[in-house]
Amino acid sequence: MTLLCAFAPLFAADIGLSGRVVDEDDAPVRGAVVILRPAPGSNISAPAEGWRAETGPSGAFSLTVPSGSDFLVSVRRQGYYALADQATHVEPGQELTLSISSVREVFQSADVNATTSPLEAGQAQNQEELTGTEINDIFYANSHSLRNSVNLMPGVIQDAAGSLHANGSSENQLQYLLDGFDIANPISGNFQTVLAVEGIRSMDLTSGRSSPDLGKGSAGALAINAENGTDAFRFTTTDFLPGLSVQNGLHLGNWYPRAGVSGPIVRGRAWFSDTFNSEYNQAIVPGLARGQNTRSGWAGANLVHAQWNLTPSQILFADFLFNADNEGRVGLGPLSPVSTTTSVDTREYFASLKDQIYLGHGTLVEFGFAHNYYSSAQSPQGQDLYVISPEGASGNYFVNALQTGSRDEGLLHAYLPRFEFLGSHQFEAGGDADWLSYSGDFRRTGYDLLGLSGELISQTLFSSPAMFHVGDAEAASYLLDTWRISKRLQFNLGFRQDWDRRVHSAAVAPRFSFSWSPWASIRTRISGGYSVTRGAVTLDMFGRPFDQTAFTTSYLANGAPAGPPAATTFTSPSSGLKLPRAANWNLNLDRQLSARLYLAAKYLRRRSTDEFAFLNTLAPDAPPSLLPLPNGASPGLYRLTNLRRDDYDSLQLSLRQTLSGQFEWMVSFTRSRAVSNGVLDPSLPQPLQILPSLVPMPWDAPNRFLAWGYLPLPWKKWAVSALADVRSGFPFSIRDQDGAVIGSIDSYRYPLKFDLNIALERTVVFHGYRFAVRGGMNNIAGRLNPTAVNNVAGAPGFRQFYGAEGRHFVFRIRFFGRAGSHT
């Protein structure tokens, strides 16, 4: 960490002190708190908390302090090591450049500490943040997976299929960003990118109230920031030795080898970071016969991130990502044997380039372009019809598909000079445009529905193969005024305008928020606001009308057809659709209890309307069904509508403390309610039924307790990593043999889910090289934590739960290069 000063003599009692805060690569650091206090022996009269300022988007700050005096300067920012009490002499016209280093995992110097950001009024967004060190240090299940790490945020849970649900949302209601660019699947809007956890600097989840540049997710945004290189070469490998499993006999277990290298391209000017991630999975599914109870797959990903400081005021950033994923026996479960599974082969390419130019006086302009390509091939085990029966599924799954999609994105963002009028104003303005493309090739077969006695109730067959192509264009603009009335009170006023060609709709989304520190100590902050957020258009919805037609034949008890086949088709209107809309209210109370201990209480209320769903116009009041095509025995004409509505309310309490080095802990409790009128089955990507009332979502979890920590042990170089996650069981419905829901929807629940993971870690130096060795156990309490249930009334195994998680041992070795290469 360095402190650089330049002086120019002026004469005044009080002077305006300006400067910038940058990281170790001279990139600006936004949201850093700069504190000046009188040096010991100084006779300056100072505020109790010193002179404080928060950096803007360009890293710039300004203060008014007495001239010709000696001060102690401190800088604090979440995810960075603190710059503490550096001595400096302030003269008129002085410009400060303060450099702080980002927290990097393992073997950092023991005399520097990471800190939680002070409770400044300028922190106006409702945000949860995970640093790269937390992602790598905390012992969560499948800790090689970046997707699984998001569960460390109190508002995020995963369902049995692994889908993410942030604050009660569907996965595609969240916007996913990599270094500022949209990285969601351009077809479905889901987050399917594989990234090495070692290559991530931080993840920020914003919901409720957010800057208007985040605007393509009605439930918020998850921003992922890649790790950058420095002037020191660094190298790490993890899990480079394959594991062994003793479950159902000794065999090669899951293997997640990962490697990373970072360093300078041109010292002092250009740096890179390259992280490689690979996976070999061999999972065992309880409840199936030996030899038929395993599924395997492999995946690989490589992310290159680079930064080039073209001049002291112009920085170029670039990313290139490649993903490949081959999974076999997808869908294998206690009620879904091998024959019903599919093989899935996916590919993703992502490239981005962003130029950031600092023009002085707090003015920063950035513009960039990104291209994202995604392909997915899904193939069943054979061509036999799929069979849905009360005892489970059999036959071969009915979907055979090849899908490709792409997104080209351009963005422009400008931070304008500050000016004074009843306080200070910092305006931001910008816009972005997307061009999207989706091609589909579907060759579905069909499925049979059997009754409790094994009789054929209905058969659904799909027409000839369908090949189609749809495209879309999106454009947005936004404006934000950050109005700082005083150092303890700030308002954020903004709006965003979104337009989409496919829905022929333009919409305005206003934003308002405030942040207030009521006492001069600035140890308490009250913040809140109201915002309207708009959801993105997913092309899978608009491709469905060009897809195959389904024909369903019902059968009598004697096996004879009850009538001619009933056709099910899909359509989208040429006009009248709207962009999904969510109205968000949020109120937070943050309290700094001690130097490193923070208490937070958060209330969030979201009312989503105009969400997309298909409605059967021939039978809009048909009873709810859990079949792939509800009411398939009758003709169906499904029309795309904006009739889906989601409600979410939550109250969250959390306590968090940072300790020395990278040690810390967090504990939280969340009480929430997630309901909808259009989501019955999370496995169906496109809701096909609109209910007369709101019912619990399949991932509704009213109560959740989450605690994790990475703590030192009394023995030198030893640490313990632990996680406890307790939540309500997910809801489910009971259905009859025809698929119709019996009784109230989602009125039953899985048992309470409880995970307790504990691991010990030891850092060692062996022959001059550094290693970190970890061993631990997931689900140490041995809870069942089932993932499936037989929900067919009258079936032999009715209401029996399946998919016991079981205890499992986890071992990890990380290599960090020569002992002298990390400080």
Short structural description:
The protein has about 800 residues and is mainly beta. About 0% of the residues lie in helices and about 55% in strands.
CATH C-level of the largest domain: Mainly Beta
Terminal CA distance: 12 Å
- Low-pLDDT stretches are 1-12, 107-113
Instruction: Give the beta-strand count.
Output: 53
The largest sheet is:
22 strands, antiparallel, barrel
| Secondary structural class | mainly beta
Q: Share of helix among residues?
A: under 10%
CATH topology of the largest domain: Maltoporin, Chain A
**Percent range for β-strand residues:** over 45%
User: Which overall shape is indicated by the principal axes computed on the Cα atoms?
Assistant: globular
What's the total helix number?
3
In CATH terms, what is the architecture of the largest domain? Beta Barrel
How many domains is the backbone divided into?
Answer: 2
Rg, rounded, reads: 28 Å
CATH superfamily of the largest domain: TonB-dependent receptor, beta-barrel domain
How confident overall, as mean pLDDT?
88
